[in-house]
Amino acid sequence: MEILILSSLLIIGLILLLVEVLFIPGTTIVGILGFAVSIAGVIYAFSEFGYETAIWVTSIAAIANLAAVWYGFSSGVWNKFSLKTSITGGAFDGRTEGLEVGMKGKAVSDIKPIGKALFGEQLFEVKSESGFLEAGKDIEIVKVETNKIIVK
């Protein structure tokens, strides 16, 4: 019965440690619990078995736990979970391409101070530099910023 308890403690500790290393990043409660269960197994070995047997159990448990940690970091499991691409976009999304200062357009909605305007065949969200502009009024682009179109 003692062998069953000892092996259960050591195997559960090893499994928890493997789960921590392979699936849960960082030092979390699972890794700490796995380490604690392994230590409990070693303490149990010292209390129930002779000194020589307990040293063997401690050595085997230490080697198995170190091998599990080494395998977890060198097996490539992290490659399945790691991000391979980077974000290349930024604040500019290209919505003002083709627009220039001085272009004429027509307000489709009331611009108070933000509304919709038509330049050519495309509809754009614009901002008025002078406040309220009625729908249907002719407008002109005063400034084109990153993603803002300022009109008057």
TrEMBL record:
Q: Which domain of life is it from?
A: Bacteria
Q: InterPro entries, per this entry?
A: Membrane_assoc_protease, NA-bd_OB-fold, NfeD-like_C
UniProt main location, coarse: membrane
NfeD-like C-terminal domain location is 101-152
* Membrane topology category: Multi-pass membrane protein
**Pfam families, alphabetically?**
NfeD
The entry's localization annotation reads:
Membrane
Question: Record keywords: Manganese included?
Answer: no
Residue spans crossing the bilayer: 6-24, 29-47, 53-73
Q: What UniProt keywords apply to this chain's record, in alphabetical order?
A: Membrane, Transmembrane, Transmembrane helix
Keyword Transmembrane helix appears in the UniProt entry: yes
Could you identify this protein by its name? NfeD-like C-terminal domain-containing protein
| Originating organism | Algoriphagus taiwanensis
